[in-house]
């Protein structure tokens, strides 16, 4: 039977802004997003079982429709009239879970890209529209590159590539519940907003310093004792020479932006020993 492979690239929030909670319970989001080289490996093995299931190197990752990759596969098969096609989606996870890096969404996006390459049924725009029914971050993870995301995150405007740079990504050994952090944001209120317009202008000008000076994530203001570690990591990254540092998504991963070749040799090793996860990454361009 046929086997296909795809990379599931992580995402970083160069900025994250949220409006007040809407009547439907959602928040309008405004985010500048970037795809990076840190990724999971996704393999799809077609079979004649009639079932779609997932396997992973992490024992706690579900193998049924609770897994966004499975949900994405089923949505795609229904949309193109291929219901009943069996497959096993194998996820070799390297993007940390519960990090705010879109790990589950990127797996789902990789499945959608791989299936559409195999069947060639949908245009890029149609694939992104379909992906919005799987999850809010999935359309961006399908498209990739550098983009402004609004609405729940599903409305995208591609932006110029980030200027040449590298990222150092560090995650403490805990995760933060996204619904919980949204509840705390509603209770705390939003005290400050990122300069999204300024970031977009700096991207168009290719000015890395201006971008980094304006990076901001509203969730960092939430009153949560666990976020003290986020502030500590930001300080460490800035001390290492980062031009800017923020938490990505609802955390708990933090990243610093460095000029190419400027990450100190021992920084990654030292942060990994202290916090559990630390990896270098680079920008990835548009995927879809």
Task: Provide key terms for this protein.
single chain, 288 residues, alpha+beta, seven-stranded mixed beta sheet, four-stranded antiparallel beta sheet, 32% helix, globular
N- and C-termini, Cα separation: 26 Å
Q: How many helices does DSSP assign?
A: 9
Order of helices and strands: EEEHEHHHEEEHHHEHEEHE
Q: What structural class do helix, strand and pairing data support?
A: alpha+beta
- What is the mean pLDDT? 95
Taken as a percent bin, the fraction of beta residues is 25-35%
Please estimate the helix content.
25-40%
Q: Please tell me what the overall shape is.
A: globular
Low-confidence stretches: none
Radius of gyration: 19 Å
Largest sheet: 7 strands, mixed
What is the strand tally? 11
Could you explain how this protein is built, in words?
By secondary structure, the chain is of the alpha+beta class. 32% of the residues lie in helices and 29% in strands. The protein is built from nine helices and eleven strands. The strands form two sheets. Strands 1, 2, 3, 4, 5, 6 and 8 form a seven-stranded mixed β-sheet that branches. The two termini are 26 Å apart.
Strand and helix map with partners:
Layout: E1 3-21, E2 27-47, E3 52-56, H1 68-79, E4 86-92, H2 103-119, H3 124-131, H4 138-143, E5 146-151, E6 155-158, E7 166-171, H5 178-188, H6 196-205, H7 208-214, E8 216-217, H8 227-239, E9 244-247, E10 254-258, H9 267-275, E11 277-281
Parallel strand pairs: 1-8, 3-4
Antiparallel strand pairs: 1-2, 2-4, 2-5, 5-6, 7-10, 7-11, 9-10
Helix pairs in contact: 1-2, 6-7
